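[stage:ingest] chain + small molecule (GLP)
[stage:ingest] validated
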Amino acid sequence: VIFKNAAQASMIVAKEIADLIKSKQQKKENCILGLATGSSPIMVYEELVRMHKEEGLSFRNVITFNLDEYYPMRIDNNKSYHYFMHQHLFDHIDIKLENINIPDGTVSIEEIKQYCIDYEIKIKNSGGLDFQLLGIGRTGHVGFNEPGSHINSGTRIITLDHITRVDASSDFNGTDNVPKRAITMGVSTILQSKRIVLMAWGQNKADIIKRTIQEDISAEVPASFLQNHPNTTFVLDQSAASEL
Ligand code: GLP
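[stage:predict] done
[stage:export] tokens:
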């Protein structure tokens, strides 16, 4: 779906999430959301916060699982995805703290394999993701599933692509300061979500959006695996869609 601009598109995505939360509330069920970081989802989070403050949208039945976190990364570091999520969403809504799950960048390297297995189990035991929000990196990554990621991959530690580290360099004051690794949900973890919305804004995403949607499915562009997901929508602004 192509919108005139990111602001308009973000309103529609936020409304879909709010409607899902409310319909689950009516059924007295939890709503399991997979959440993303980066600049793309910021306006969606702003709109959800507004709906909480002005319209009484409650998040008491919401359980969240974030896609990824840099590794190693302290939780209180203002470059962490923990910090980002609290700053843009969690600090402003009534979600229960125990319902927030974000990969932990402080886990020791010896424990990380088990930690990732447990993250997967926790998602499954919660009932599985009802909705997964995604951005896309210029390498075609979703979460931090860089080129070469297998369709069956689960939550794991990965090495970041050089392009990804260059793109994150302004946040870290130079590419050399960007962590070399990250913990990410896998391609398979993402594909198991009942509903997926991938958002992309701006001209610098136009090429990867074209490759993701119009070229063959390939691990070289991990987001292309979404082509076979039965309930995925790409929400784009006109610039991101300009090469389609
Ligand atoms: C990071 C995140 C991704 C995100 C991507 C794009 O690499 N790990 O989940 O999709 O950035 O970021 P932006 O939305 O800022 O373009």
